[in-house]
């Protein structure tokens, strides 16, 4: 509000009069005069307020009239159609076809492989500047979600399409056709104990049947049956090895392994291990004999010392060793005979991988006596033993008997190895070890 010049002067004079009255009675304007000026000010303010209110009322009235006049004009969005629509983006995992957004033009949408379009595939630019329909989206929908494979087939997702892996005797893109072929060799037929009814259920008006583990589908679609899979035949020529080390026994839906007599099945359910009857006291050897464990069994042995000949004779010092009696002073052949003869029994599986060390022979000097300077090892006798075994030194005091050819069981053979002692290049004594090799009929 703008105050008049008269009002501003009157207001200033009143303020000065009041200020002078506060300083003292001298110079103070007459009280009635001051009250008169205040009443004039009050009337002036009321008049200004009335004029201001009247001005606002007039302005509101003119504004309302103007609004009424404008509302009677034709609407621009109703009379003047829009010439285009806002731009549209392609949906995620999809594409858009059409780049014009004028009224009447269409925009089309499509999804990438593996995605389905949800919503309108086409939208039209309308006269009101908006697109028809709602926004479309591309959703990842499994191609196998509808269970397209029939008769127990397995659906496998592909890049652009699915593929059905059909069970035996079924073929077709959805395993809908049955093949008329003979049952495989590994199928157990004509035995009620090895046949079961399939589990069937209808899904989307299509019957789906399946078999328990260890069975496969057989028969027609109207009379299907689950036949046992003979795992022993299926894996007979498996490159990874046989199911069982010895014998595979087929049972309904599975199999189990068995071992020959004298062997036990290990925890893996397929390997066999020899039972040591001598260690577990499962033998029947009589007194005076010694139990020797063999592959799948045992033997009761009582080796005898070599027979006396000339001045050479032996005495048994332990169940498996004989020692030569002292030689006469005048005998030249007696010192050349083996001073000791020992007996050894070795059990081997059939077809053992070679070379394989079977036996070690060594010497030990008596306390307080020096040992021989050198030792010589060899195979006594000849014949086939030299083609199957070799005797070689492993260190200064030890020789090894090595098998160089596989032995197929069951068989038993004996090989004699000797060790000659020399001191200052002079022969001192010879020791003989008679090794009995017992080959099992099995390769375990």
UniProtKB/TrEMBL annotation:
GO molecular function: calcium ion binding
GO biological process assignments: cell adhesion
Disulfide bonds: 111-138, 166-175
Main location: secreted
Location of the Sushi domain: 83-140
InterPro entries, alphabetized: cEGF, ECM_structural_protein, EGF, EGF-like_Ca-bd_dom, EGF-type_Asp/Asn_hydroxyl_site, EGF_Ca-bd_CS, Fibulin_C, Sushi/SCR/CCP_sf
Subcellular location(s) per record: Secreted, Extracellular space, Extracellular matrix
Domain of life: Eukaryota
Signal sequence region: 1-21
Pfam families noted in UniProt: cEGF, EGF, Fibulin_C, Sushi
Protein name (record): Fibulin 7
Species per Swiss-Prot/TrEMBL record: Pygocentrus nattereri
